[in-house]
Every structure is written in structure tokens, then in C-alpha cells.
Amino acid sequence: MTNPPPAIACSTRRPGTGRLVASCRARRGFSLIELVVVSILIVILGAITVPRMVSLEKRQEDKALIEVEDLLRMFAFRNSVGTQQIALHYDRSRNALSLWILDLNPDDPEGPRTWQQDRLSYPVDLPESMVVTEAAADDAVLRDEIWTIASNPDGSRPRIALLVAGKNLTGEIVLDSYSTVPVRLDKDGSVVREPIDLDAEGREFDRW
């Protein structure tokens, strides 16, 4: 049995002599200096890339919270100017919020009204890093995978509170039943005004 040949066997014959001189050597791995240089480059690239990714994700979450506010503002507007019931719908499997309206069924105009997605507003698709962790309609807390908060047949609507949590931002948005402007409670200086019954408190002559 013969021994296996070397992995690399490089030699040359020096002119004018009968000697063989090694012209190359087999390399068995990286040197310590090379490993240090590569490690430093990886650290530098990570220090540049990671903050940019976090900043991009944070901007996406902030944009999503603004869109949720706009959707609640549209909910209040459609409720105040229309006669149809309007509803806020959330589907966690799609991670989307949308407005629905109780309207005539186009396939059966003479039949009962049916809930349909509102054509005058766009749904809010939350980024993968965000989710609606909790919602409340007046005192009823909703934590289901799918829920709907609808206005009342008499035209009134419940107080809506949403807690939207992300990796970088968490927004607590409230739309009071008497207001058309949602409020972000997570922002400094945000105040939710509570209704006061002046007659019940004996302040019927107070200016307001």
C-alpha cells in the first residue's frame, strides 16, 4: 500500500543545479491577523446596518400609528355625516384594521342590509412588528383574534380605545364617543376630556 500524495506538492529545479527548491507551501487555515481583520469588519458592518434597520422599523411603526389615527378619524366623520352604521374591524390573521358599513346588498337590493367593507377608506395593514394587543368599546375589552366595534343604530357610538404594540413603539389611541379627533395617550401632553353633567353637579349656571 502506498501513502496518499500530499495535498499540495510544488517544487521547481533551480537552473544550473540539480537541486529542487520548494516554490509554494500548503496553507492550512487563516492567520490570526486575518481573523482579527475579518472580525473587525463584521463589527463595523453590524454597527452601521443594525441602527439603520431599527430606524426603518421604527419609522414604519410610527407611520402605522398615524394611519390608525386617520382611520378612527374617518370612522367618526362617517358616523357624524351618514345615516348608516359604521364599524371598525380587526383581523389579526391579516394584521389589518378596516372600516365596514351596513349597506344595501348589491346582489339583493330589496333584501336586508349587510356589512360590507367601506369603499371610501383604505384598510390599515400593520407592519409585521406591530399588533393590536387590546381594544375596548366603552367598558367591553376585546382581545379576540377578530373583533368588530360598531356604531349604534340610533347614530351614537361607543368610546374606542386601542393599544397597538410594536418592537420599538407602543401607541394608545382613544376616540371618545363625543369627539371626532382621536388622541394618542402615549404622547406627552395628550389629554382626554371627560364629559361632565353640570346639572347633576349643581353647576347648571357655569359657563362652558
Layout: helices, strands, pairs:
Blueprint: E1 11-13, E2 20-22, H1 32-81, E3 86-91, E4 96-103, E5 114-117, E6 124-125, E7 131-137, E8 140-142, E9 146-150, E10 160-165, E11 170-175, E12 183-184
Antiparallel strand pairs: 1-2, 3-4, 3-9, 4-5, 4-6, 7-8, 7-10, 10-11, 11-12
Taken from the alpha-carbon principal axes, the silhouette is: elongated
Mean pLDDT: 82
CATH H-level homologous superfamily name of the domain at 64-184: minor pseudopilin epsh domain
Helix content: 10-25%
Give the CA-CA distance, first to last residue: 107 Å
CATH class of the domain at 64-184: Alpha Beta
Beta fraction of the residues?
Answer: 25-35%
Q: Which segments are poorly predicted (pLDDT under 50) over 5 or more consecutive residues?
A: none
CATH topology description of the domain at 64-184? minor pseudopilin epsh fold
Q: Examine the secondary-structure arrangement and name the CATH architecture of the domain at 64-184.
A: 3-Layer(bab) Sandwich
Task: Count helical runs.
Answer: 1
Return the string of H and E elements: EEHEEEEEEEEEE
How many strands, which pairing sense, and closed or not: the largest β-sheet? Answer: 5 strands, antiparallel
Number of strands: 12
Round the Cα radius of gyration to an integer and report it: 33 Å
Structural class: alpha+beta
Q: How does this structure look, described?
A:
The protein is α+β, with helices and mostly antiparallel strands and 208 residues long. It has 1 helix and 12 strands, in the order ββαββββββββββ. The protein has a domain of 121 residues: minor pseudopilin epsh fold (3-Layer(bab) Sandwich), CATH 3.55.40. The strands form 3 sheets. Strands 3, 4, 5, 6 and 9 form a 5-stranded antiparallel β-sheet that branches. The protein has a 5-stranded antiparallel β-sheet with strand order 8-7-10-11-12, with helices on one face. The longest helix is centred in the N-terminal third of the chain and has 50 residues. The model has no long low-confidence stretch (mean pLDDT 82).
